[in-house]
Amino acid sequence: MSVFPMLLSSFLRPAGLFLVSSLTLLGQPAGKSMSMQARVLRMTEFLETILPGTLGAKNVTLHFTPKFSDFRDEQYTRYPVEVRYGVNDRLDLSAGIVPFAPNPFRSGSGVDHRWGLGEFRFGGRYDIGSLGFFDDTTIGLENRIPLGKPPIGLNDHYTHVKPFLALARTLKIWPDTTFYTNLSYDRSVILTRRDPPPPTVIRRHVIDVWPGMLFKPSELGYFAEYRFSHITEPLDWHYGHELRFGTIWDVPIESSEKWKLPGKWQVELAYRITHEEGYDSNHGIFARVNWRTTLREVLDPSSKPATARRR
């Protein structure tokens, strides 16, 4: 048996007790005001982590989040595109696709050179404000529907319905530090008539819980988080564990304007160690660029976004 779960347990049990006791003493409501444009461009996610927050009424943003680790790890590259719309001050709706293309750094007869639309995504977020210990809370739903025959790593040919909860609290004596937690349930369903999934695919339902800390005193931030997964398969269930830590560069608007780059740019880099019971442990570095802009800037390039609120 791998020693990875034992190491996680010995590390996380005392760390978790210290973290909970510290947060009980240090927490405070954020209570900071922000301009509408800053609210639109505030950071509400990095990598696969969701932070609480919505766009506000009648605001529209465009998001583009290519995964550069695909160039190293996969035969394809993903180019997710998403549009978000603020129905009111609390509710957002979103829709997008995850097209894929051949990896230009992979060649040969055994490499998959397909192009495709990948999957269609749609969902929503609702801001419910404070909830108990947390001063920011957002609930949401994300749906992923395969389009055509995407690579298994992009979509396993099942439709996925995932309700989630994102919570955050700013620490009192360290106002640049945020404690956050994500909870989600990813259920795979058969929504439409399709060809059977590839024989290597195992249908699974996953419950994820991952707390973390984000320290962001300026444009450069640092984070660490632990993800616990309960994975249910047709004949069994088991646990998964993941540790990750990394950095986020929230590129200043002034710099992107100087470089003639529209919108708000965010560069994300992390190192992760994962272990799933019954499988080998693995680790590696992965990166993503998160670009977002408002519909106003797309239609009128002369408009300039305001600096977003730090988180």
Topology:
Blueprint: H1 4-26, E1 27-28, H2 36-41, E2 45-46, E3 49-50, E4 60-64, H3 70-73, E5 76-78, E6 81-86, E7 91-97, E8 100-102, E9 119-127, E10 136-146, E11 159-171, E12 177-189, E13 205-215, E14 220-233, E15 236-250, H4 253-258, E16 264-276, E17 282-294, H5 295-299
Antiparallel strand pairs: 1-11, 2-3, 4-6, 4-17, 5-8, 6-7, 7-9, 9-10, 10-11, 11-12, 12-13, 13-14, 14-15, 15-16, 16-17
Features:
311 residues; mainly beta; 12-stranded antiparallel barrel; 14% helix; globular; disordered N terminus
Task: Output the CATH homologous superfamily.
Answer: monomeric porin ompg
Low-confidence stretches: 1-34, 305-310
Apparent shape: globular
- Proportion of strand residues: over 45%
Class per helix and strand makeup: mainly beta
**Order of SSEs, N→C?**
HEHEEEHEEEEEEEEEEEHEEH
Strand order of the largest sheet: 4-6-7-9-10-11-12-13-14-15-16-17
Number of domains: 1
Description:
This protein is mainly β and about 300 residues long. It has a single domain (about 5-300), classed as Porin, CATH 2.40.160.40. The chain has five helices and 17 strands. It has helices at about 5-25, 35-40, 70-75, 255-260, 295-300; strands at about 25-30, 45, 50, 60-65, 75-80, 80-85, 90-95, 100, 120-125, 135-145, 160-170, 175-190, 205-215, 220-235, 235-250, 265-275, 280-295. Strands 4-6-7-9-10-11-12-13-14-15-16-17 form a twelve-stranded antiparallel β-barrel. Strands 2-3 form a two-stranded antiparallel sheet. A hairpin with a 2-residue loop joins strand 2 (about 45) and strand 3 (about 50). The protein is globular.
